[in-house]
Amino acid sequence: MTTAAKPALRRKTRGSGVAPLLTEGLSVVLGAKDLPIRVRGWDGSEAGPAGAPILEVRSQQALRRLLWSPGQLGLGRAYAAGEIEVPEDLFAGFTALSSVGKLANTYPSSTLNARSRWRLLRIAARLGALGPEPTPPAEEANLGRHGRRHSRKRDAAAISHHYDVSNEFYSLILGPSMVYSCAVWNDEHTSLESAQATKHDLVCRKLGLKPGMRLLDVGCGWGGMALHAAQHYGVDVVGVTLSVEQATLARQRMAEAGLTDHVDIRVQDYREVKDGRFDAISSIGMSEHVGRAEIADYVTLLKELLHPGGRLLNHAISWNAGPARPDPDSFIARYIFPDGELLTLTEMIGALESDGLEVLDVEALRQHYALTLRAWVQRLEKHWDEAVQATSEGQARVWRLYMAASALGFESAKMGVNQVLVQRPGGSSPPLRRTAWAFEQAIPHPSSHRPREEGRT
Q: Assign residue 426 a region: left if phi > 0, alpha if psi is -120 to 50, beta otherwise?
């Protein structure tokens, strides 16, 4: 072969290798003829639009997972296992993938028709990817052995799966505030810590907290809200969580702040709180775990724990992309929030109002959660090696996929997050205007607590 013939050979073989077949297989799985991604195979070959985000398929095992679970779950498993990768711009790659075929639909199907399945089988055979169903990554939840959905035992297992990962891991992502919910940003240049403090202060002002009041923080996490309310508003707080690791660190934080006499952190189901009533209740990022069938009981129970005139603030993610229903085969359900359900804002307000609670204020924070998630992804990328060491590479990959995809979900308005403030009838009347909380205010100086009264509980 002469030297002059070599360039012609390169042109002829460009696009050869496994990449063209992988592209065809992905097209079948996603239900899209033209993919806006460039596929790179395990042999280094590439196919697809030049300059498009790259999806790297690292082994035949990835295709085998898609053969057995042809959709979001198969892709998620392959990503968690490190069998596929977005090696360059994470958000650009996920945006491209989520814009096509099944992944662009509200409820992507995980099944293929007979013709598509036969076509995928032929592609898998040519690539040596046929074989038994691969074992799911260790990070996948399995709650079936814990009883019926939303029983107390199963809810505890679901919370443990998500939150008892590693306090060190969470600190790398969330930062010193250890706040795992949507922050409130003045602008995109605000620091994450400042934005989380602003969120807590907004909640405190909406609840009308004053020294000597008693606050119940449902799903208290690592104690961020309890800490802020006790330090800056002089209230006594009961915080409940089902996560042992969360409670351990939250108690440590209260001790370091000298607040153990004023903040009681419990490992307790909210349905087991018997020492009400409270002047106010905060529920931040917790009702997503309750479930549609249980939401009416959740509202009734919290209402009964409030003094007449007491306020409840429910801060929750909402589903904005059509009628919601649980999808047990979604990546989120299998890896992040097993048994979790997102209600629409209409459903949430309806549940609160149907029990006689008066709605005082509704605030949408969708864009704020997108900024929060991008900040968390940035922290994870910055501390990647430490995050892997604190848990596992699979867990870190699960969280990278979950947070990046969720940020895109909020940016596209498929999901929202809302603070709904309600008041139990009776007691003091609510303010005539929203000026008590609607305008920017400085976080107050730490308040001194009133001495405990004799016999006060």
A: left
Angle at 200 between CA 391 and CA 422, to 5 degrees: 115
Could you tell me the pTM of the whole model?
0.89
| Residue 259 near residue 230, CB atoms below 8 Å | yes
Distance CA 5, CA 7 (A): 6
Handedness of CA 381, 386, 387, 393 (dihedral sign): positive
Q: In what order do the strands lie in the sheet with 38-40?
A: 46-47, 38-40, 54-57, 84-85
Residue 144 lies in a domain: no
- State whether 248 and 363 are in the same domain: yes
Cis peptide leading into residue 122 (ω within 30°): no
Query: What is the number of structural domains in the chain?
Result: 2
What is the residue-wise DSSP string for 164-216?
A: -S-HHHHHHHH-TT---S----SSTTS-HHHHHHHHHHHHHHHHT--TT-EEE
Same domain, 56 and 167: no
Domain that holds residue 115: 15-126
* Tens digits of residue pLDDT in 144-199: 555 566 677 777 666 666 666 789 999 999 999 999 999 999 998 999 999 999 99
- Region of 279 (left: φ > 0; alpha: ψ -120 to 50; beta: rest) is alpha
Q: Are residues 55 and 114 in the same domain?
A: yes
